[in-house]
Fold this protein.
Amino acid sequence: MKLNLQLFGVPFRRTSKTKKRMRRTHLKKEVGAITTCPKCGATIRPHRACLSCGFYKDEEVVKVNKDEEK
Ligand SMILES: [Zn+2]
């Protein structure tokens, strides 16, 4: 298939390494919000039940299998 280049914006110059890297300094993965469990102190995500103790808002909402923990 032959492309009709008149239909496209064609780069006048190749983007330099520096310009490319400067542009990509904004491309990074954001770190999600993180809090600690008030019951056990484990690092958890807000508005979610704690994975290590199974508590959410002073109430056990998830049964955590303690035997599988080391
Ligand atoms: Zn916890």
Observations:
- The mean pLDDT is 82.
- The chain has one helix and two strands.
- Residues 5 and 11 are 11 Å apart (CA to CA).
- Residues 37, 39-40, 42, 50, 52-53, 55 surround zinc ion (CB under 6 Å).
